[in-house]
């Protein structure tokens, strides 16, 4: 039963990824012609491109100048500092004769010395029945709060968010940090916090049941050899210079003045 479900998720993710690439290219072409540039592509790119995309997405959630309502809507500093890992990706939802959702991004893990692993490529996807006219792009940050949640991304294959690992909307602002401080102390914090934004606004998009797929071929292309997500997230692949922009943004997120 589990293997059958896993195969179905894999097929849906792969099919939706192809859909996302087609839709993403159409959106990219439209944006280029119209002069619109403030969106992140759902199409998987080079290691440098995906690292820069992840840095831009994270910046939207941590810097006051990027957020209309100021510090009351940022990811609290403590949430970033306590994170065991981060999964950052862009999702496009679009439809013509049928609807679909697909996207791409990366996952990184905090290593025992406090540094961050090299990125492992991930994709998400799903298809549905029923027409949906137009498209919407959403940026997502998942805070991995437990070793178990990081291991889920290390095993290869698919991760179903909200399956064996609970997920909840992440706390925001000063009030949110105060609310979860006790949870960190008692180790009762939810395994995964989710944050999402569409067009610069907190979207509140539900990712319950979302399948995330390891892009093993993309990782091979990035690192020049066949490498497992587990090895990447355990630090057995050196942190690439192409990802320094992401590491710098994470450090900025941890070092910023809380309020």
TrEMBL record:
Q: Which InterPro entries match?
A: SH3_domain_YSC84-like, SYLF_SH3YL1-like, Ysc84_actin-binding
Origin, by domain of life? Eukaryota
GO MF, any single term: phosphatidylinositol binding
Record-level GO BP terms = actin cortical patch localization; actin filament bundle assembly
Q: Please provide, in alphabetical order, the Gene Ontology terms of the cellular component aspect for this entry.
A: actin cortical patch
Q: What Pfam families does this protein's entry cite?
A: Ysc84
Domain Ysc84 actin-binding, residue spans: 126-253
The name this protein goes by in its record: Ysc84 actin-binding domain-containing protein
């Amino acid at each position: 039963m589990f293997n059958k479900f896993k195969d179905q998720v894999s097929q849906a993710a792969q099919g939706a990824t192809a859909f996302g690439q087609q839709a993403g290219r159409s959106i990219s072409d439209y944006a280029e012609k119209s002069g619109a540039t403030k969106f992140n592509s759902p199409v998987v790119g080079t290691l440098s491109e995906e690292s820069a995309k992840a840095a831009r997405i994270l910046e939207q959630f941590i810097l006051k100048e990027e957020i209309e309502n100021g510090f009351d809507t940022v990811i609290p500093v403590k949430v970033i500092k306590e994170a065991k890992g981060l999964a950052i990706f862009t999702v496009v939802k679009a439809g013509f004769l049928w609807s679909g959702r697909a996207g791409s991004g990366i996952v990184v893990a905090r290593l025992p010395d406090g540094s961050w692993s090299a990125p492992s490529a991930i994709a998400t996807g799903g298809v549905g029945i029923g027409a949906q006219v137009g498209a919407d792009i959403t940026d997502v940050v998942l805070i991995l709060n437990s070793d178990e949640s990081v291991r889920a991304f290390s095993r290869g294959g698919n991760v179903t968010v909200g399956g064996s690992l609970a997920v909840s909307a992440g706390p925001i602002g000063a009030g949110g940090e105060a609310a979860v401080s006790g949870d960190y102390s008692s180790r009762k914090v939810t395994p995964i916090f989710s944050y999402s934004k569409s067009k610069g606004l907190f979207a509140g998009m539900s990712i319950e049941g979302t399948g995330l797929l390891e892009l093993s071929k993309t990782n091979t292309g990035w690192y020049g050899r066949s490498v497992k997500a587990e090895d990447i997230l355990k630090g057995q692949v050196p942190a690439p210079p192409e990802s320094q922009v992401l590491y710098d943004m994470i450090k900025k997120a941890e070092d910023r003045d809380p309020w």
